[in-house]
Specification:
Helix content is 73%, strand content 2%. By secondary structure, the chain is mainly alpha-helical. The longest helix is centred in the C-terminal third of the chain and has 65 residues, at 205-269.
Length: 314
């Protein structure tokens, strides 16, 4: 059933997208075209390299001409793709075992449960790719409007996806699991050692979530910001010296903006009962912040910009 749905999705999107009249099928067709285009660009070699002057040292980028992408189509396709992927991954947690039975649903649920980490990483990779695609679409939208053609740089998408996957998705999966297990040991130890009122206060879910959020801001976000900025500069061909210069020039701005963005986000993330759900919600929230990171990492270093405008594209 999963193979049939997958095949129908892409065949409808690629072959019949221009001839479908019903509204529901039209949405599926447009999404199928968009997802298949992202899949081809992320996993296959560049078929249409063209020179560009926007990247340091020249180089080429991939322009895909098979489908006319506009910011409006990218916004809609990305929203549907991320929503569908999130709906497929969310049951990967332990609560999925309590859902109502059914032959197809039971098979799909077992597949997700047996491949929990792979499903979470795939969801994160899709969100990372969508973040860079959206960052480029926003730049086109700001310059020429939502109906203008967006010639996406697919090599940049692949580079940003890999940088986010290595610097954030894989580390956060391990970090969330570490905090989840450490909090259980902390709760047991606090209840044995401390007085009951103090133990209740320190082991309250809100207290635990605030502690995890504070640790994540100080330790995790600092490390992931350095890794992302450095990897982006290094994979653009700048070398270790260029990567370090990029980190020194942009780290503080990124860390302060991350502090503002993730302070409330992490309270929500770490209030969830299981780390797998925390990873899914963090992937969705990081999609928004990774749009900003992609913009900052591809912006040329120059005079400092006022901090109040740091979220606004230039």
């Amino acid at each position: 059933a999963a193979r049939r749905c997958w095949r129908w999705w892409f065949e409808v999107g690629i072959q019949q997208g221009g001839r479908i009249e019903s509204h529901g099928c039209h949405i599926c067709a447009e999404s199928g075209k968009y997802i298949s285009l992202m899949w081809q660009a992320l996993l296959l070699p560049c078929a249409h390299p063209e020179p560009t002057s926007s990247q340091p040292g020249g180089g080429k980028h991939c322009v895909t001409a098979t489908v006319r992408l506009t910011p409006a189509r990218i916004y809609a396709g990305t929203a549907i793709a991320v929503a569908a992927a999130s709906a497929a991954v969310i049951p990967a947690g332990p609560t999925a075992r309590q859902q109502s039975p059914g032959a197809v649903r039971a098979a799909l649920r077992a597949l997700r449960l047996d491949n929990d980490m792979a499903a979470l990483l795939a969801h994160g990779a899709l969100a990372d790719a969508a973040a860079d695609v959206l960052a480029q679409a926003v730049a086109v939208d700001s310059a020429r409007g939502r109906t203008a053609t967006a010639d996406l740089d697919w090599r940049r998408v692949r580079r940003s996806t890999l940088a986010a996957l290595v610097s954030d998705d894989i580390p956060f999966l391990l970090w969330a699991r570490l905090l989840h297990e450490a909090s259980h040991r902390y709760v047991l130890a606090a209840r044995r050692v401390l007085s009951p009122p103090l133990a209740r206060a320190l082991t309250h879910p809100a207290s635990l979530a605030a502690t995890k959020a504070l640790l994540s801001q100080i330790v995790y976000e600092s490390a992931t910001a350095v890794a992302y900025l450095g990897l982006q500069a290094y994979m653009r061909g700048g070398g270790a010296a260029e990567a370090w210069a990029e980190v020194r020039a942009k780290f503080w701005r990124v860390w302060v903006d991350g502090l503002a963005f993730f302070s409330a986000t992490y309270l929500v993330v770490f209030a969830l009962p299981h780390y797998s759900m925390q990873v899914v919600v963090d992937n969705i929230a990081s999609l928004v912040f990774n749009m900003y990171l992609s913009h900052v990492s591809h912006r040329k270093r120059g005079p400092p910009v006022p901090h109040s405008n740091s979220f606004c594209p230039r």
